[in-house]
Amino acid sequence: MRALLVAALMLLSAGVAAADTGLHDCGARLGDRSATGWCHGTGAFAMDVTCVDGHVERSGTVYIEDGYGLVSASCFDRPRDARIVVKS
Questions:
Q1: Strand, helix or coil at 13?
Q2: Which residues have CB under 8 Å from 63's CB, separation 6+?
Q3: Is 0.85 topped by the overall pTM?
């Protein structure tokens, strides 16, 4: 009986320890003069946007806890590329 109780407690605690942490499902979309980035989960992130003139703009940092966050940054001309930067 005691062995069954211990096994049940171990299974329950394993589910808690395996809870999803960190950021996931991150992405970015380029617009005419800006870019928008997003992530789900828990953590902090920003976005670097490279403009066609070579200048790099960085968004502000967003901190989320088990949720959804959005960031954006603009170029004077057009954005060429955008990447999410996960903060530790």
A1: helix
A2: 43, 44, 69
A3: no
Between the CA of residue 60 and those of 20, 46, 57, 73, 85, what are the distances in Å?
A: 25, 6, 10, 8, 11
Are the CB atoms for 82 and 28 separated by under 8 Å? yes
Structural domains of the chain sorted by starting position, each given as residue range(s) with its CATH number in brackets: 20-87 (2.60.40)
| Longest CA–CA separation in the chain, Å | 71
CA separation for the pair 8, 39 (Å, rounded):
35
Over the stretch 47-82, which tens digit does the pLDDT of each residue have? 999 999 999 999 999 999 999 999 999 999 999 999
Q: Is 47 exposed, middle or buried (0-12, 13-18, 19+ CB in 10 A)?
A: buried
For the four alpha carbons of 50, 56, 59 and 65, in that order, the dihedral sign comes to: positive
pLDDT at 36 over 70: yes
